[in-house]
Amino acid sequence: MAAAERDERPVGQKNRVVTLEELEVTGSTTVSAGLAPTRQLLMQSPAAPPVSTPVPATPFASTPAPSGSPYTADTAHEASMLAYSADFTLAVFEVDKSLASVETLARQLGGYLAQRGDAQITIRVPRPRFVEAIAVLEKLGDITHRNVSAEDVTDEYVDLDLRLKNARAMRDQLAGLLKGAIVKDAVEIEKELAKVTEVIEQIEGRLKVMRDKVEYSSITVSFQANAPSPVRTTAILPFTWLDTMGLEPLLNVPKVSP
Amino acid sequence: MKLENTQPPYDWRAVAPDGVAVAMRVVPLQDKADLAFWTHAVTLRMREMNGYALVDTREVKPRDGTAGKELVFGHDESGKPFVYRVRLYLGDKRLFVVEAGGTKEQMDRYAASVDWMLATVKLM
User: Fold this and answer.
1) Cα separation, A107 vs A109, whole angstroms
2) In this complex, do B48 and A226 lie within 8 Å of one another by their Cβ atoms?
3) What is the pLDDT of residues B61-101, one digit of tens each?
4) Does the beta-carbon distance from A225 to B74 stay under 8 Å?
5) Is A235 an 8 Å CB contact of chain B?
6) Contacts of A114 (CB under 8 A, 6+ apart)
7) A7-16, A118-127, A159-168: which range is least confident on average?
């Protein structure tokens, strides 16, 4: 349906008023029909194939994509709506200091703190500063896990934008009908007008969320010790002295009489 | 202060009044392997099983010039950062393991003393 509503639509349908069923929005964040699923582009994967989706004229067409690192987006994606995100897990050391550093970094880069807990922090940074942010974070401590990804929301954005235009056209048409309607018809038209207005607000809200997701990249930094695995995936070296390495035995000094 | 009745796994241990501890152990080896092997073994054990952060690694030499490796780990205990330094030296069928640890605050304060103790270890 999405493709049929683009410029390739038959002339007779280009300005048609779509029905509410076609515009139906379920919940507050998802559109029920006609949307291509969003794609996950793992930036760490060198084999990520280029996407052939036509590049739409979006408010982000001129926004530079992050560059100058292994996470650099390719040219084909530069004008797309890519929502960058990253997750880092660090070994537990100087957690408070590191959390404060991450929060400060967000502000220095023009971003903001999204969430902070005892051992986890999420920041949002402007998309052009994303690579700079992760370059700094990679030096923060001993990283045990990292994941950097880009979600292409171009298709979803274009579909929603088209639905918004159609909904507005429908609203305008209903408003025009309302002006010359008799009382009996006016009540029905107002009901339809209320419904389409609600749909417009939902789509506008969703588009706002998507724009924010693209404009600001999310970065989550967690501090956690590796959870002991119930099934060993590697053999353990048979040297018992390795079991006594660490701060606990070193600092556990037995009591003696002076 | 050196502890007279040092118990296994250590062969020698000393503590400062503020809680910084330095210890040494000699591990007999059936097969010599190499320093890289033991460095990797200790790193894996501390990082992946004990959850320590590897903060730094560096080449070191004791007084007799034996090539060694130092691993510096960090770990928070009850929300407080601690530092754990390990030096590994390979001798004839023996591995010398020198350790120092304490709160980061104390380890930073006594860094010069700890460095001196670790550097003046005599391998016999």
Assistant:
1) 5
2) yes
3) 887 888 899 999 999 988 889 999 999 998 888 899 999 99
4) no
5) no
6) A122, A123, A124, A218
7) A7-16
Q: Identify which of B5, B42, B50 has the shortest CB distance to residue A256.
A: B5
For residue A30, list its beta bridge partners. A26
CA distances from A203 to A30, A73, A198, A207, A218 (A): 9, 28, 9, 6, 22
Predicted complex: ipTM over 0.90: no
Could B102 and A97 be called an inter-chain contact, meaning their C-beta atoms sit closer than 8 Å?
no
CA-wise closest residue to A225 among B51, B48, B95: B51
Cβ of residue A227 closer than 8 Å to a chain B Cβ? no
Say whether B47 and A239 touch across the interface (CB within 8 A): no
pTM across the whole model? 0.66
For tokens 């970094």, the residue is A105
Mark residue A164 as left, alpha or beta (left: phi above 0; alpha: psi -120 to 50; beta: remaining).
Answer: alpha
Q: Determine the average pLDDT of the residues in A192-209.
A: 95
